[in-house]
TrEMBL record:
Signal peptide annotation: none
Organism: Paragonimus westermani
GO CC annotation, single: nucleus
GO molecular function terms listed in the Swiss-Prot or TrEMBL record: 2-oxoglutarate-dependent dioxygenase activity; sequence-specific DNA binding
Pfam families: JmjC
Protein name per its UniProtKB record: Jumonji domain-containing protein 4
GO biological process, one term: positive regulation of translational termination
Ranges of residues in domain JmjC: 1-140
Amino acid sequence: MNEFWSVRRDIQDDFRFVYLGVRNTWTPLHADVYQSYSWSVNICGEKRWWFFPPGEEKKLCAFNNGRMPMDVRNLPLESTGAAYFLIVQHPGQAVFVPSGWYHQVVNVVCLRALAGINFWEFFILLKYILLTRWPNRNICLPLSSTLQPAQCDDDPDELSRLERVIDAELLDCLQNDTDTLRSLLQNPCSWRDEIQGSGVELVEHKLPHWIRLHDFTSVLQIITLFLKHPVVELLKSISENPLNKYLTVL
């Protein structure tokens, strides 16, 4: 997500978070939103993490009368049959939180927490990822240079201007490569199929392509679900421009 902020000229910001909290505060069992992944670095204090690989949460639900438990400390985990990792994070240590892994965190000593999200900005970020990961074009646009021309009268701010540039480029890609788009929507795990049976040398050679394809298909699914969500439609959270209309009917 921080890659997106590098092309933002209207604001100096990023998608990092600072966590603060007193002893025994905790985050219930969950998987991070938008299939995101992250690094968590401890400045001070200690945190206890429970990590469950994808699919293991189903065993927790089955053991908990079909409901996802909020606090795994209330469960006899060994009896659930679920595989998990339990770690204690000390000051100066970094923990990687993989996409799709359910996890729970408890502050062993004093910490703090602060977080937030703007859905309009996040939607522009999704479109930026879609554009820069386009599988059939080696696109890595220097969008900051694209923003040099004079601002249009319809652009109230720099972010609106950035969205206009991204939308124009992305709409061009969509209209000229619809077959690729529909194919990936029908088989979003095609990148995984390509990996299976590949030798080590091929994996190393193709890894950048697979990562781009993974990012592209993941974001494509999120965007299509987001645009068709009844709450988004009710609140009119997304403007009805040509690009968004095109994405909605995919």
